[in-house]
Amino acid sequence: MPTGPGRAGDRACVMAHPVLRRLTTPLLTTAAVAIAAVLLQILSAALGGEVDTTCPAGQGLWPKGTSDSDRTQQLENATRWLHDLVEPGRIKDNLRHCTSTTHVGGSAQDYGQAMYTQNVWQQQQLDEAILNRYDVYLSHPNTSHPSRVYLLDGAGRVKFTSSLSDDPDQLERGELPAYLAFCPSGNVTSNELVYANYGRREDFRLLQELGISVRDRLVIMRFGAMFRGNKIKNAQELGAAGAILYTDPADYGNPDNSSDAYPDSFWLPDTGIQRGTVTWLDGDALTYGYPATEEAFREPARPTANMPLRPCHTLSARDAHKLLANMAGPEAPATWRGALSTTYRLGPRLARDDWSVRLYVNNEENVMPTYNVLGFIRGDLEPDRYIILGNHRDAWSYGSLDPCSASATMMELVRAFAVMKRNGDRPGAGSRLQHAVRPLAWPREGQSLQLQPRLAQRALVLLPDARHAHRLHDVGNRLCTLELERLPALPHRVRDVLGHGAPGPRPLLPIDVRDVEKPLRLGLDHIRRSYGQLMDRHNVSLGGLERAVQRYVTAAQRFHKKIISRTDYSDLELRQINDQMVGVERSFVDPNGLLVDEQNRNAVFGTDPDHEYNGVLFPDVVETLLQVSEQPERPDLWQSARRALAAAIFVVNGAATSLADPSHFVRPWPETEPDQTLTRN
Q1: Among the four 220, 323, 366, 443, which has the fewest Cβ within 10 Å?
Q2: Is there a domain that residue 486 lies in?
């Protein structure tokens, strides 16, 4: 089933949980392999005594002079040890418990799973295992009168009613009716329906060029190509009365065999209904930017800036077919046509002039308690440094794949760390955990990534020297870096968790600061290619940013050459070098925040505001220049673009400075000739 990256993805929570386990069971092996791979990477950075820093970044740190055969033998020993330590059967048991009931965030089942996780970690003798309560603004469907879409004839009789679930039996077992979180309640009836493909800005522009407006009309769009919330936002900005989203087989079915679908294969059946959030910014809506604690300030009413203002709902492909087959108007362009057996038309008229579509949305929004589960394993050598490993707990339904396959994997990984901590053994030598390990299980990733930003905000205060953060990302065979782009950045290639036992020195982090050159140049090239001519016409130069990027490249090369020139670093020197490497991405944080994205502060790595699944380089520069390109006559927009460009230059220069010798004072800006008028005699 195709999914989008990040932020809960375009995933359809559709499959009956008892049957899905048959499909998920093979993934347990994948999850176990993923754990083994992660631990092997961890061990590769930990084996040995004297550090050989001449090894290429990312290949691990070995005792100086270790032969290839010795390395192979140590990895084989580590593999055998991992086979003894990691137990796939435990992952299977974890998955069975996680999928034993639905556990939507904020529900009693969600709290029960939080308690279970805490109890397990306490039994495994983690140093700490605690619950943190947050009172967050959540959205759930009204189960007595749930949301639906109707097709009405000229007399107002219902000719079609959308399904509440792909499997009605699941509703009897506690599954919530299909809904899109934070779609406002409303009741819209219209005899006009517009098909807008994926709901991208370019899709709506094409409709406008064809003379088809969505203002005061219902819009139907297919999932895929971009985050669902941006589809709703785009339709809302153009005045649509309401929006309907559906999963088209062209995007979620087997392209070679339309009848090949679950439960006979992995592809989404035409009865599958996707659930998900449609807010387009992360975090709690009422305590925006701050943790949703008891003492937090809360907005007195539902905010309008980051949420849909018009009703919206989700349909299966089978139900959407009923609507699309009853549309009139011109045929859709070839690239807009999905895989349903109907002629895709743009509307806005229906095939029968007196028929209409009714969109009825009945969602409830309330402040409800939900919980982070935080474990803690103290480090031996650098207990003030933290490795954060975690995943979200909640699911739109049973969550056999997302998030339970990853949560089940994480739980076994935590158990492995706990065993290592207690026994202090690994192949060939005693070991210590160099840094503290903080396993985390947070709720409500699905609705708006609420607890992940909350955790990050608290990390600014509680974990100012947090160095490594990895997240088992929703599905258990993927590992990714925790998305903290708005906060002090964390290294993206860190794999070392175990440190050397005394008396060996601490390892250098396997980070190559030269890697940052590629995204810096990609971002610069994109700006030059997209806006260079426009900037030239208005005498706005990219020279400062070009020089800052080159200055960073030179500093990174010099730093790398320096650190591989020696192996006899003291503990203090190693810690200093590690801090400098981690400090590179921290330097990209603009203390004043971004102009176009109040939630983020990273001036180099950001999120595309038109597509929440995509990243963007130099986000403030790109977005302000985009605004200028649409209205180049406005001096205030050019002023914003110049400010964004100056901020980007500042942070890139700061990153270069972070790699300089810290024992000497270094200007955080380019050196210039001294002004003779200010020079004292």
Answers
A1: 366
A2: yes
